[in-house]
Design a protein that fits this description.
Blueprint (H helix, E strand, L loop, with lengths): L2 H16 L4 E4 L16 E4 L4 H13 L1 H15 L3
Helix pairs in contact: 1-3
């Protein structure tokens, strides 16, 4: 992975978190080392190359609005400047 790809991915993920969107992301290692989504409860990590896992994560958020709201707030709080 090129450094520019990593920067693009981190920037987009943080922008989504800032506007209160829960993140569904594959476990790739690179971004996981920068932001641990599950530790801060801002998203769901799934295995790479597993579209069924992505679909299950999407369904989980759709069917559980409270979980979605909690991830929204956690992500926004994480990226908010102090």
């Amino acid at each position: 992975m090129k450094a520019s790809d990593l920067l693009w991915g981190v920037t987009n993920m943080l922008e989504c978190m800032a506007v209160g969107l829960p993140i569904i992301k594959t476990r790739t290692g690179s971004l996981d080392d920068i932001v641990d989504l599950e530790a801060i409860n801002a998203g769901i990590l799934v295995e790479p190359e597993n579209p069924e896992a992505v679909a299950r994560a999407m369904a989980r958020l759709r069917e559980n609005p409270e979980l979605c709201r909690s991830m929204d707030g956690a992500g926004a709080e994480y990226v908010r400047p102090t």
